[in-house]
Here is the input.
Amino acid sequence: MFWNGLMMTGEGNYDEALERFHATGPEFQGWLSNHGPMVIEAMDRRGAGGRIHRWTDDYLDRLEDRPRSLFPIGPDEWRDPLGDPARTGDWIEYFLKEIREQPWSDVVALWWPRLLPGIAAGATHGVIRVGHALRSIREEDTQPRRDEVAHALAYWAARWQPVPVVSAAGQRRPADLDDLIDAIPAIPDQRFGIRFRLRQLGDAAGFAATAAQLARPTQTADVPGALAQVVDAAVAAYPRLAHGNATMLVHAATAPNAVLLALPSLPERLWPDSFDAAWTATAAVVAAYRPAEPAPAPQPRDGADDSWAHDSWERAVADGGEHIVKLADTALSAVECTGDLIGLAAIDTAIRLEA
Here is the structure.
């Protein structure tokens, strides 16, 4: 039995902080992602709610005001502004209106398949923010949490960026992913940012063929378990690959984890395509940022007990790095599910490399 901080809340601090973040935009300084709502959800979920406002105070200093709506988006006019960051304010107003006029679950069910092909949006932060928002609103349905679902969907829509989704139709099972992740080939040109890198996936020799070796679950009911194994494998790969780019490779684990968080809020008919998109996101991030050679796999900790996981979470929160906190939340879920302490090595690596 490993330490599990789930279901511990911060007595309203999370909702109050969400309202503060909703006065800000989803990006700052160009197109850096506003991680605030995602981080505070993880903190609230894992018992660090009492530290949410202090963390928020520090983080808000970086952010910019919420963009204004310029040209309202009509219900049948969504295709043209999809993926246009200049329409971010319009997308926020659109989804706030939708969420206030109909059940949030209906809005998500309609928009998830529209947005899923663009899972790379905002360096995968669009889907990550949606995943955290859906986990929180299932726990408690409040107005700030409904608004957060709207803001999260709006960010995904504004930064929508398609990637060639791989149909996972091969022979390898998710439990055998370690070698497959290490075998994903790097894109040829790694000089610039993620949008430049992801555009090369279609031309990357062996990428699609390698990624397609994974076997998609044949039964819809098996998708959550199989996707959890993808997340576990991505967490386990992080200590081996993080020296390629410690920050960006966090998303190889947190993006599929966000899809896993979203599944209970989605109609089951959307689960299989969600699995393919989540695995594609993992493979794409690895291809974009992997080092030439993986580092040796870390040795497991001997004699570890519940306190190791608690201490790892405390170290992540004390560090306060937005990617470190989100990876720690994902890695601890893997540890709690599998008992494999490699997740703690992932947290250690992220802190050491200042992800």
Notes: Residues 1-10 have pLDDT under 50 and may be disordered. Strands lie at 27-28, 32-33.
